[in-house]
Hints:
By secondary structure, this protein is an alpha/beta fold. It has helices spanning 11-26, 50-68, 81-85, 90-93, 109-117, 155-159, 167-179, 205-216, 235-243, 260-265, 272-285, 304-317, 344-367, and strands at residues 2-7, 30-32, 40-45, 76-80, 99-102, 137-141, 143-144, 163-164, 184-188, 222-225, 247-252, 290-297, 321-326, 373-384, 387-394, 405-407, 417-426, 429-437. The protein has three domains: 2-117, Rossmann fold (3-Layer(aba) Sandwich); 137-367, pyruvate-formate lyase- activating enzyme; 373-437, CATH 2.40.50.140.
Amino acid sequence: MRVLYITLGCAKNEVDTDRMRALLGAAGFEEARQVSEADIALVNTCSFLEAATAESIETTLMLAAEAARGIRTVPIIMCGCVPSRYAEGLAEELPEVSAFVRHDEEDGIVEVVRRVLGIDPAPYMPRTVLRTIEGPSAYLKISEGCDRFCAFCAIPYIRGRYHSRALGDLLDEARALLEGGVRELVLIGQDTGIWGSDCAPGLSLADLLRELDALAQPYHAWIRVLYLQPEGMTDDLIAAIRDLECVLPYIDIPIQHCSARVLEAMNRSGSAASLHDLFKRLRTEIPGMVLRTTAMAGFPGETDDEADELASFVRDEGFDYCSVFSFSAEEGTRAARMDGQVPEDTKLERTQRLVDIAERQGFSATASHIGEVCAVIIDGIEQTDDGCELIGHAWFQAPDSDGAVHIEQGEAAVGDIVSVELVDAFCYEMVGRIVEIRE
């Protein structure tokens, strides 16, 4: 039996899909690459934004229509955020779907698939660490849920309250990934900086990084941390990022805004002054640090002056990477019910201004690396009209997010770490030539 996997949304969903793929693979199911060769399809959905929910439902309906045009109908299982957020009434609204699996039910995916396909229940399977990552970089999800309840965000209602994954489980999974050939661990979670706060007294993200660093050193692997919050940047964590051999000086801190009044309305803390002081400190204590952030335009009640303040802040801080979002009134969130909703055309104008600023800065930050010789992990090989091109990413580029390094000459395999001289840049992309292969 073959299973088609379709993943929508963020990296955390990719980890969840990989877990289900591994469980089903251990139970004897193979992976299908297209619907025509599948016996069943899993759609792991996103519902962070209304547009993501719509895409998830549209993808499911398109899959059903595509299957209907074939020789046989392919049963569809909808997993993840949409079933978690809209549990009631989905069966009536989407009769094309054979089963719905919430995010906290995904470890039982084998039993669900067997039931849908009419296969006898499987014998007991121990819930061991299972991943199927084949590439050189792998996401390591260290927590689930969120306790922040930002006014614009539905994640706590979809994924529940914050809880850290156990240290032993994370180390077992990291060890298996490294032994399997992974050369970069990317730590993710809704709020990575508070990992361990709900575990044994004294555990922190800095402790986890020290444990992972010890595992990664024999493999010369990288450790990257995403989705930190400003309040999570403790002295101990800053020191760990600065001093640990395998932890990259790459910090991802979403600010959303800089106006103290807007941040308070968002149910977040901070101000332009406190954020400026934090970034100044990080740049001082972690030389050469690369900084990624996220900004939101058009939050309810945002005035022209506050929009100008955010634009000036982003321009003055000179972030290496800045993702920009236009506020979306998400069902069930406090912000969706707030007075002072910003007109759509005003939101789009403010968003585009931020995007223009972020791109100018980002393109310049990328070009600043021209002339450097740095380590690059080879992610893939593409065939071009001129021959083969190696595609990789440098330490200052998060995989799937920040551009890539293109190497037109030289030989290397996927997963190799090579020394590359960076000779040119275009937008967020870089061009390099191999100096030596390290592994």
